[in-house]
Every structure is written in structure tokens, then in C-alpha cells.
Amino acid sequence: MLTTLATVVAGLLGAGLILMGANAFVRPRDAVGFGIPGAPVEDPGFQSWLRVKGLREIGPGAFLFVLMAVASSSVLGWYLLVFGLIPAGDALVVLRSGGPKATAYGVHAATSAVMLLTGVGLLV
User: CA-to-CA distance for 48 and 42, rounded, in angstroms?
Assistant: First the structure.
């Protein structure tokens, strides 16, 4: 039961990553919600970097689905444990750049926690 629930959450995480990555192409100005103050979201050069970031969200999101299809639940669990370090790092970046604590903890740290708990759920 726990493995099934964790696999469903992994799929939701993968879908969320793909949607967020695609959003970087459709509405790059929405990146202001990432939490870094003073981000030049209107600058076309910055928007190009946001598209790079979007691709880097789509790739791992798609990889979650690949692992769900071809790997054991433990491989998926280890991937999520390691991958959960990225949003934890994002939270630190937001905090160190003077961004809102609500975004750092409520978005990035919470995402990291969900990834880590899902990974653990797949490993037990």
C-alpha cells in the first residue's frame, strides 16, 4: 500500500515538474514566484535562462516516468532521495538572496520534504 501511494506521489511530482518546465516557455514572467527578489523577469536574456531552467525541470520529471516504467521501486526511491536535494538547494538560494521565507520554506523546502518522504516510502 505504501509503495503504491509513494509511486502515485512520484508520478504527481513528475507531472508537476513537466508542467513547471513547460510554463517557463509559455509564461516565463511567472518565475517571479521562484522567490529571488529583483529577478529581471522582463529581460529577454533572463527569459532565455528561464527556458534553460524549464528544460532542466522537464528532463528529471520525464525521467521519473521512465523509472516508474522500467525500474524497481527502490531505484525510484533512491532517485527521489537524491533529487530531493535540488529543491532544498533552491530554498537555500532563496534565503541567501533575501527572498521571502514563505517561498523558501512553503514551496522549495516543502517540495524537498515531499520528495524525500516519497523516496523513503519507496525504500521501506
Answer: 11
**CA 64 from centroid of its chain's CA atoms:** 11
Yes or no: say if 8 and 73 are a contact pair by the CB < 8 Å rule. no
Task: Report the residue count for the chain.
Answer: 124
Low-confidence stretches of the chain (pLDDT < 70) are: 31-33
14 and 65 Cβ atoms separated by less than 8 Å: yes
Q: Which amino acid is at 63?
A: F
pLDDT tens readout for residues 23-34: 988 887 776 667
Rounded Cα distance, 31 and 50, in Å: 8
Q: Which residues does 55 contact at the CB level (< 8 Å), separation at least 6?
A: 21, 24
Q: What are phi and psi of 71, to 5 degrees?
A: -115, 170
pLDDT reported for residue 5: 95
- Contact between 77 and 120 (Cβ < 8 Å): yes
